[in-house]
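2.7 Reproducibility. Because tokenized structures are sensitive to small changes in the input, we list the exact sequence used for Protein translocase subunit SecY, including any N-terminal residues retained from the expression construct. No trimming or masking was applied before prediction.
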Amino acid sequence: MFKAIARIARTPDLRRKILFTLSLIAVYRLGAFVPSPGVDYAAVQTCLAAGSTSGGLYSFVNMFSGGALLQVSVFALGIMPYITASIIVQLLRVVIPRFEQLHQEGPQGQATLTQYTRYLTIALAVLQGTTMASLARTGALLNCQLPLLRDDSIASVLMVVLVLVTGCVIVMWLGERITEHGVGNGISLLIFASIAASFPSGIAQVFQTQGWRVFAIVMLVGLLTMLAIVFVEESQRRIPVQYAKRQIGTRTVGGSSTFIPIKVNMANVIPVIFASSVLMLPGILIQFNTPQDGSAPPAWVSFLSTYFQGGDHPVYMALYLLMIIGFTYFYVSITFNPQEISDNMKRYGGFIPGVRAGRPTERYLQYVISRITLPGALYLGIVAMIPLIAFVLIGANQNFPFGGTSILIMVGVGLQTVKQISAQMEQRHYEGLLR
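Resulting structure tokens (single pass, no recycling of outputs):
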């Protein structure tokens, strides 16, 4: 391992890419602690000390901003608007034929879709920034009823919105620069950095509040969870494909054997984000409809507070698990097209041994996908439920370090980045990062 790191240091091009990536990540992390102009930082710290932001909506959004949300910093919106825009554009391929046509046009069409994603990111950032500034103005942002803006005038609110939107655009630009000139996927690495930044405090909190025995159990569960995630993420069903020989002029081409790799977890972490985002809506409704004068809330608000606030109710857990399974099937159905794969195989003379080309191949691929998606969906649901189970068993908060969306993203991004570094090293040294 140390020899591999030494080879990286001796490779100028790879060393420059890694240093460039680390420098932009450092800029991103620095921006998470720069307060937005017009924000009363003392009031922010008072709200954080009161502990009014633990769990639920705040923990999920704050995780993707690397703590910037609770600091109301210039990068408070983080990368969430870009993630949401990317998912929306991807889903619109099913609804808008033009988007699907652009997707099939290759690099030029992908560039157009990327531009649409940028425009939608800015629109979502304006919407979210306006909501955040309005909540900060009234004191409801951090749920402590203390105004967070020094001046509640319209000009001050618009300035905060402008800063938040600009910060989101800068974060998007940083991610794209890392992808183009650095190592790995820039957006994924920024999310990785945001989540990793909260791990030390989460682990320390478990040790301080629960003692060393619970701390040891948590570390063991974390290690086993990471091993299980690596095992499942690297697992795949390989469907053999045989290409018939063809005569093109005086050459004979084809006759090769390959396979179609189908991952157990084809949906990655998207279903967990979908389910978490939907279940955040009751928390938002509770926050906006709870009387500020101390009077009793409406009956429907009390119902939502009982079953959907905190995440420790069995109804919430069951609904969360079912939604993850449902979203997994939905996302796989729109991203994996058996008909397109079958048509491409038939066009180039490929076939699955024992399966006729055309419609039978499409039905066979659909059969395999429907069977392999179930264990992948259950795997996502179980991993995502770990923080909720920990909340019930040991009283941990929603920022429990091991499990859920955080550990899935960290392990997935880590594997992807290591593979890319290893591939670049093999081009120069014939040896990867890990032997």
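The chain has two domains: 32-182, 200-435.
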